Amino acid sequence: MIIYRKELLNLIYISFIIHSCNGQSRNNDNCEINFKKARELAYVDSVRQSALDSALYLANKCMQCSSIKKSVVDFKISLLVSMKKYEEGIDFIDSLKESDFTYGYKQNLLSKGLKALEYSDKKDTINRNKMYREISGDLEQYIRNKSIGENEFKEIYTDLFSIKENYLDSNQINSEVEALKNKYPDKKSFFDFFKK
């Protein structure tokens, strides 16, 4: 009788594990399907507000899916920017953890970047440029203080120069590019990409 109970408990336990795994698999499938629908709505029908609202709704549903969360985070931020919902985007970004982003510096960059876009929409170039300078300083400090890999190196410098293009002229950018080519001689061709 005791052996029968153990076997029954083992069977119930195994059944529970199988059911849990199937449930997770179905949730991941639903996440993938919803995320695909959200992207289609946003990219195929990007001028219709109701399509963008539907895409945002689906993106919010997909935030619970850990397997695609970073992609959903990037998509949702892009969607909020295209909808010019900067304040909502800032609140969303600030509610996340640093680990929800591809690289550690992205959360700060995106939050302040949306603030700069908000200033830009209000035609407030003084505060916009002040914000862009602050972002650039943050990125340069991150580069100095962190050990970064090859892919992160390329991405952070691409982000840095895309920010600097908003408030520096071509001579200033070219001067910075030359200084970086001297500092990183093995990456000259990479930095040439940013010359104006």
Question: Could you explain how this protein is built, in words?
Answer:
With 196 residues, this protein is mostly helical. 78% of the residues lie in helices and 0% in strands. Helix 4 (86-95) packs antiparallel against helix 5 and helix 5 runs antiparallel to helix 6 (125-145). The radius of gyration is 23 Å and the shape is globular.
Please report which band the strand proportion falls in: under 5%, 5-15%, 15-25%, 25-35%, 35-45% or over 45%.
under 5%
Could you tell me the number of beta strands? 0
Shape, principal axes of CA atoms: globular
Runs in which pLDDT lies below 50 for 5 or more consecutive residues are 1-6, 8-26
User: What share of residues is helical?
Assistant: over 70%
Mean pLDDT: 86
Number of domains: 2
Order of helices and strands: HHHHHHHHH
The rounded Rg comes to 23 Å
* Termini gap: 83 Å
DSSP helix count? 9
Category from helices, strands and their pairing: mainly alpha
Produce the secondary structure layout.
Layout: H1 2-44, H2 49-62, H3 69-82, H4 86-95, H5 106-121, H6 125-145, H7 150-164, H8 170-183, H9 188-192
Helix pairs in contact: 1-2, 2-3, 3-4, 4-5, 5-6, 6-7
Keyword list:
disordered N terminus; single chain; 196 residues; mainly alpha; 2 domains
Can I get a quick summary?
Helix content is 78%, strand content 0%. It is mainly alpha-helical.
